[in-house]
Amino acid sequence: MNDIYIKAYGLSKDYKVKTESGGHKLIPILADVSFEIQRGEVLGIIGANGSGKSTLLKLIAGVTKPNAGQVEVKGTVASLLDIGAGFHPDLSGEENIYLMGQLQGISKKISKQFVDEIIAFSEIGEFIHLPVKNYSKGMYLRLAFSTMIHLPFDIYLMDEVLSVGDIEFQEKCKKYIRNLAIGKDKILLIISHNYSELKDLCTRYFTLENEQVCDFARLDDYFAHQATHTKKPKDGSYQLWEHGLSTKKPLENATINFRKESAVFDFDECVSLEIKLTNVTENVQLGLSVRDGFNQTVFQTYFSEEIRPSSSVLLDVILPKQFFNQGSFPMDLLFYSSGQLHCIWNDCGVFQITEVQHSKTLSLRTWGPTKPDIQIQSIAYVD
Amino acid sequence: MLNIKLNKAGKDRLRDVIPMLWRQRELIMSLATRDLKVKYKQTFLGVVWMFLNPLLMAAIFTFFFSQIIQFTGVKHSTLYVLSGYLGWYVFSNTLQQCTLVLKDSESIIEKIHIHRVLLVLSRCLSVCIEHLVFVLIVLVITFISGQVNNQFIWMIPISYVLSSLVALGFVFFIAGLSIFRKDFLQIVPHFLQVAIWLTPVFYAKEMLPSEFSWLLNFNPFLGMVELWRFAFYSEPFDIGLFGFHVLTLLILSLLSFRFFVKRERLYLEQL
Q1: What ipTM describes this predicted complex?
Q2: pTM here?
């Protein structure tokens, strides 16, 4: 059997960006990066937006070339950088399956063997003979995704594509991808912001930091790394609320630290925060906003005590245990004066909740940012 | 098994690109059939248009150049214009369609590893099939008019291949230029407008005042157009001048192809 691998040696990539003055500026994305990925590995690529995750996949897919160094790819590559790229709106679903395969190097003869499977998996049914421009967005994406995962490639590059279709279809895809990864000795590279989804699939994790690749064997290692690196949170960005009463900053700076060494908490553990405010110049009321991994607000609340002017204020705040689901939670601090929102300090700190299954209660995996412990008050069986 | 090696130091040479094209022949063919399928799928008459388009064009030319405009000093003005225009059309249509394909498939190029040469060649193949129908129709008209040049009819495939190759050369040159500056794609229609009037397509060389007609000898398109006329019906023909023109065009085309292949990798580095 032929070997399948991806090897990168001293890879560097810059982006040329036009500056306002008309000149050019080089933005480094990767600098002298080397790694090796063997067959059977499922790689989760995580990290902030704009850190270069997509660029890394593009380099492996060969749609862009490095400024220095070399990528060696052995095996047929399925590039799912953009689902449905290459589909022609006027061709039927079936014709598009063949075309898609051919564009990515799979001959029609081979695609034919998989076509029934693809149609069944995508749940397109009789619509398969209609031009894809008549499909709904969901059908279109389902067909494109099913095509790419069923055709026999060696290496799959997926850029935030696991959120195709409804929840049921997503679960089906994840199950299929898991089999693909475990059973068939392929290489999968998956970019995602959804840690719970990666945790089920991946055998290895990459994150991009300061133009370098950090390699982790487990997601918890990444969380631990994140926590030690965010122990001293970067100064949150100050933002004045438009309808605020005064344009003056009511304080100089606001940060959130954690009582313990790292910012990683267990589901059964209280999240204890230490909020530090410096040079408060007027009476303010403090509020806390917690977001989930998708930047959706989980809740916003405020503390009833008013904070008096002082050069340094330290507050201990405890967030409830057995409340946050697994994931990462960035926090913002809000300041109210005279009953109105005055200003916001964004990204004052971030904490992680891990391993829900350690919990004695509520050990099953669930969706959503929170997982409150809700008791049944009474049960009646009416047979 | 595909083995892609992307190397900064490695060069993209013609001799690497040509085997790649051979390996990808199935893709070229199916992209070409896709182009044709999509083009006629929307219409009621479907593939009939492939025949109807050149027939209508030939009908219009026949009407104007036999009934309304008559060239003096030209044996058969309908055939003169029709065969010359056919040669010009094969060139200009290939050029236009193949430069368009680069604009149309930007979204694919950015997501899937595919060499642009493949896209250009597949579009070229699909327009070539359409041109073939046009050539056959003009040939039938020539037969009907009894002007057919039996002795040199074998020149038709040669002039057909030549015009398409020259057009491809221009496509690659423009594609190479447009990689960094899309503006060059905008120039194509204007270039074709100017070139069609600098070349005796809708007029005969002899109709120009003698103080200008010698300038035509420096227009390589003259050789291309005259070759078509010669192939379809015996038209007096200067073999030395023709050789010079054809050679110029072929060398330019080859240089353009090399130019494009080299620029392609520079572009990918920019992406």
Answers
A1: 0.80
A2: 0.74
